[in-house]
Amino acid sequence: MRLNSRQWIPVAGALTAVLGVAVFVHVLGLSGESGTTFAPYSTYRADPLGMMALYNALDRMEGVATDRYIGDFSELPLGNDSTLVIAGASIGPDPVPVLDVLEGFAATGGRIVIAFYPIGNDLSLEALDDELRARDRREEEDEAATDGETADEEEAKSESDTAAPTEAPQTEETPAKESEKRDEREPEDELMDFGPPVEDLSERWDFEYEFAEPPAVTRLARLDEALPVEANLEGRSGLYFVPPDEGWTNIYGKTAREGEVTQVGMMERKIGSGTIVLCSDAFFLSNEALRKNRNPELLSWLLGGNRTVLFSEAHLGTRQQDRIMTLVRRYRLHGVLFGFLLLGILFVWHHAATLIPRRDVPPLPTAATAAERSHQDGLDNLLARFIPRSALLDTCVREWCQQFQHDPRLQQVRQIAASRGISEGKENDLVAVYNEISRELHHK
């Protein structure tokens, strides 16, 4: 059977729609498998920028329990025998409540590993340099403008003193100007007070960091020969820490010819019964690094001998949302959910079919409801039930005569009824007699 031109159009449209849906599902499946919808250095990503390889490797190890932390940092558990890995973090100020929680995690025996996002690969260093230069340029322009305004004010003041010495200079500002200045200051105060207080890690934990233009590959050397880690570490970031004076132990960095440490790429510090490790580059944790140049001794040292490893996903934007199924799993309400499901099935079954076997019964005639019947219908039913047919006309005549006793037509109606034999109980044509009486009554 051949299709004409009109039939080909819907067939081609349907095939195009099916092909489009198939391509969309395929692309969505690929993105879901690789995890590219998540941020870099997420354990959900299987591409070179992710950390799924490290997560799966630790998850397969005996005696090590791994998990992804997607909750709020305020709900972070105690750090007993646990390691928290925060990879891909951004350098800069952080909320003070978050820093308090992290310090509490480390103080209770936990180990925190913070590896910052590599700066330099995505032109972040150049953008930072441009921003600093633009800020310096704005400050110079503001200083020049301030100096010019000061010179103009001094010149105007000198001219006013020489031209009009009798006039006293006005030093007091008008209330309108004072209110305008107050209005200009209020928005700045509101913006400064908005949100939780923030604090820089360097000020909180007493260290300094700087930026340098990194080469394609940065080689960091082991600074403490007693540590059980690899001798060299490959990096890709321009961020480095200034060698701290005290409190920190340098792990990897660069040294000068005289042996003096010039740049630090990884360092460790004790807080309470736990430790904090800062890494200027998170590249060594990525899937690409584990494929090309893995560092098993360093990774084992980072765990600190703990049996629980938590990989933070909350700082990367993956947060837990308390929806219905999440609450069901959290509070183990599976039985309640199954009970409601069973109750719903029984409710539908009860309204769809009765539990008693049905019988084929012919439908009975149903009487009309009271809303569908009038008062006249009720009177008719009452008369038909209690008055026989033969006595119907006699009863009507008797009731009429009783109601209209002084009517001059009373005797005539009785005569018509008596002549037709109604009073004798004879069953005559009731309609004919009724019509005759009606004509007699309405004739006059």
Tag the structure with descriptive keywords.
single chain; alpha/beta; elongated; 444 residues; nine-stranded mixed beta sheet
Description:
With 444 residues, this protein is of the alpha/beta class. It has 14 helices and 13 strands. The strands form three sheets. Strands 1-13-2-4-12-11-10-7-8 form a nine-stranded mixed sheet, sandwiched between helices. The model is unreliable at 121-125, 163-179 and 185-193 (pLDDT under 50).
Radius of gyration: 48 Å
Q: Percent of residues in helical segments?
A: 40-55%
Order of helices and strands: HHEEEHEHHEHEEEEEEEHHEHHHHHH
Q: Count of helices?
A: 14
Structural class, from secondary structure content?
alpha/beta
Measured between the Cα atoms of the first and last residue, the distance is: 90 Å
Principal-axis shape equals elongated
- The overall strand count is 13
Beta-strand content estimate? 15-25%
Oligomeric status:
single chain
Mean pLDDT: 77
Strand order of the largest sheet: 1-13-2-4-12-11-10-7-8
Low-confidence stretches: 121-125, 163-179, 185-193
Largest sheet: 9 strands, mixed
Please describe the topology of this protein.
Elements: H1 5-34, H2 52-59, E1 65-69, E2 82-89, E3 93-95, H3 96-107, E4 111-116, H4 124-163, H5 175-193, E5 198-200, H6 201-205, E6 208-211, E7 218-222, E8 232-235, E9 239-242, E10 249-255, E11 261-271, E12 274-279, H7 287-292, H8 296-303, E13 308-312, H9 324-330, H10 334-352, H11 375-386, H12 392-403, H13 410-419, H14 430-443
Parallel strand pairs: 1-13, 2-4, 2-13, 4-12
Antiparallel strand pairs: 3-5, 6-9, 7-8, 7-10, 10-11, 11-12
